[in-house]
Amino acid sequence: MNFLLVVCIVGFACMLSWRVVDPMLGVMAADLGVSFAEMALIASAYSFPFAVMQLVFGPLGDSFGKVRIIRLSLAMVAASQFLMAIAPSYETLLFARAVGGAFAGGLTPVSLALIGDRVAIGDRQVALSRFMVATILGQFMGASGAGFLVDLLGWKWVFAVTGMLVT
After folding, report:
1. Which tens digits make up the pLDDT trace of 44-69?
2. What is the average pLDDT across 84-101?
3. Phi, psi for residue 119 in degrees, rounded to 5
4. With contact defined as beta carbons under 8 Å apart, do 105 and 56 qualify?
5. Please, what is the Cα angle at 68 between 67 and 70, to 5 degrees?
């Protein structure tokens, strides 16, 4: 498979897992018996570790190999989605979301660095723009797809489907 296609799929999966929760917050809060304000922390539980861990995963990618870090991060993001699908409580959901966010922080910056390593300077802007389009599509599909599927399948199944797509 084409290297750039694989990296674009990684970017798509990262953003899909990030945005999938947004349209489901109300349904999840009602199902778990918590306030909407408490459930809104689920979004922050992903975003904050995502931002902080980008500082960690860049050097780890340089030290241990970018492809290895991307594989590990992608596996952990998928695992967090599956854990959210079977989460028995709000606390488990919050924990799984934080773990997913932390490891997703290793996907985008390391993927960008990998593109920089493997794509010739003359082709790099096109490669980076394709990667960014894939991430934006992931954001769009995460939010709109979850909004559509939550009524059909329920929020736990949406996380299971997202986990399958991330793997």
Report:
1. 899 999 999 999 998 999 999 999 99
2. 95
3. -110, 130
4. yes
5. 65
Supply 24's token pair: 């489901």
Q: What is the CA radius of gyration of the chain?
A: 16
Residue pair 31/155 in contact (Cβ under 8 Å)? The answer is yes
What residues contact residue 66 under an 8 Å CB cut-off, 6+ apart? 110, 111, 113, 114, 117
Q: Let me know: does 79 contact 137? Beta carbons within 8 Å.
A: no
Instruction: List the one residue out of 14, 128, 132 whose CA is nearest residue 73.
Output: 14
Q: How confident is the model at residue 1 (pLDDT cuts 50, 70, 90)?
A: low
- Residue 44 tokens read as 């922050």
Q: Rounded to the nearest 5°, which phi and psi values hold at 2? A: -60, 130
Which residue is associated with the tokens 């010739």? Answer: 120
User: How deeply is 19 buried, as exposed, middle or buried, from its count of CB atoms within 10 A (0-12, 13-18, 19+)?
Assistant: buried
Residue 86: both structure tokens together: 């079977």
